[in-house]
Write a structure and sequence with these properties.
HTH_TetR; HTH-type_Tx_Regulator; about 70% helix; Bacterial regulatory s, tetR family protein; elongated; Tetracycline Repressor, domain 2; Tet_transcr_reg_TetR-rel_C_sf; DNA-binding; mainly alpha
Length: about 190
């Protein structure tokens, strides 16, 4: 692993475990076991480091989700697989909330360039869900995409507070009911 990648991996783990504001560059340098000059060669500022961490996180999430959903061609199964990916992630031992949400809450005002990877992540996820819902043939894919993403955000928030608040099966059953209500009925010629 390159020194740059080591710094990103270390910083991401620390930001996830604690927060963006409570972790300083000196701690990241120490735990990455790199020289200060090496750190600043790759990341001239904490803003650039956070931005790089979020771009990497976005890439990792996209790869993992696409790997999961591409195991099946049925759009409803793909949507369920996407939902389950988030549920599985929430139940991992190192889950401490969403790094994109943390960045939005903690540092986006101080470091405006951090908005770029946050927006890329949200736009990618929106487009993915929207494309799946189009294949399912729902009446208003845009509205249903926003609703689905809001439900995901709520589940992530619940997982951050108390994982016992999550009832994945019940939540999915409600999502499925909404999809069923929104499906376009094909007209049958008489």
């Amino acid at each position: 692993m390159s020194k740059r990648d080591t710094i990103i991996k270390t910083a991401t783990a620390l930001f996830n475990e604690k927060s963006y504001n409570s972790i300083g560059v000196d701690r990241i340098i120490a735990e990455s076991n790199v020289a200060k000059m090496t750190f600043y060669k790759y990341f001239p500022s904490k803003e650039k480091l956070i931005e790089s961490c979020l771009y990497k996180r976005n890439s990792d999430i996209q790869s993992a989700i696409l790997e999961r959903i591409n195991t099946n061609d049925l759009p409803l199964v793909q949507l369920r697989s996407l939902f389950n990916w988030y549920i599985d992630w929430i139940y991992t031992e190192d889950f401490n909330g969403c790094l994109f949400k943390k960045a939005t809450m903690e540092v986006v005002q101080l470091y405006p360039s951090v908005k770029n990877p946050i927006n890329e992540y949200r736009e990618w996820l929106y487009e993915l869900v929207f494309s799946i819902l189009i294949k399912i043939q729902v009446e208003d894919a845009a509205a249903l995409t926003n609703l689905f993403l809001n439900i995901l955000d709520g589940v992530i928030n619940d997982g951050t507070i108390d994982k016992n608040l999550i009832n994945a099966e019940k939540t999915w059953s409600y999502i499925k009911k909404i999809i069923d209500l929104e499906k376009i009925e094909e007209l049958v010629a008489i």
